[in-house]
Specification:
This protein is mainly alpha-helical and 153 residues long. The protein has helices spanning 34-64, 72-108, 123-128, 136-151.
Length: 153
């Protein structure tokens, strides 16, 4: 995510609430008050827009590339670069899906609360990872269970 102002929004964005320039959620505020919700909504929409733009650039780059390369080393190098671009694009696709799901949670009033325990995820965690769906403790327990399931195969 870039360091844009929280008020640098896509043209199509309709704010539900005006926020001060450089607004940041504070712990002293009521957890997930209207300002917090609007802040994270804007953050997610900005992130979504950036990923969509980068994905479009990747597609344009791959489509505009010259295909007839005579040198085998150059062709192998380009194929490696294309593979990395496609992996990145796939990560963006998955991330865009998570952002969409998070925006839905935000709309439904579930945002900021752990899917596993119902506890507050916490502002610091959400600032670091706005798509977080679990508290750190719940996430660690989930990861441990996944590891144990893999080892049990």
């Amino acid at each position: 995510m870039s360091d844009r102002s929280i008020n640098d929004l896509p043209e199509s964005y309709e704010p539900e609430l005006e926020l001060k320039e450089n607004y940041k959620p504070l712990k002293k505020d009521e957890y997930m008050c209207d300002e917090h919700i609007e802040y994270f909504r804007r953050l997610l929409v900005q992130w979504q827009e950036e990923l969509e733009i980068e994905s479009q650039e990747t597609v344009s780059n791959l489509q505009g590339e010259v295909r007839d390369i005579g040198d085998e080393a150059e062709r192998a190098s380009r194929e490696t670069e294309n593979t990395l671009e496609l992996r990145t694009r796939d990560r963006y696709r998955k991330l865009l899906s998570k952002i969409h799901k998070t925006l839905v949670r935000l709309q439904e009033g579930d945002y900021g609360y752990c899917e596993d325990t119902g506890e507050e995820i916490g502002l610091n965690r959400l600032m670091a990872r706005p798509i977080a769906t679990m508290t750190i403790d719940a996430q660690e327990r989930w990861e441990l269970r996944q590891k144990l399931i893999k080892e049990g195969r």
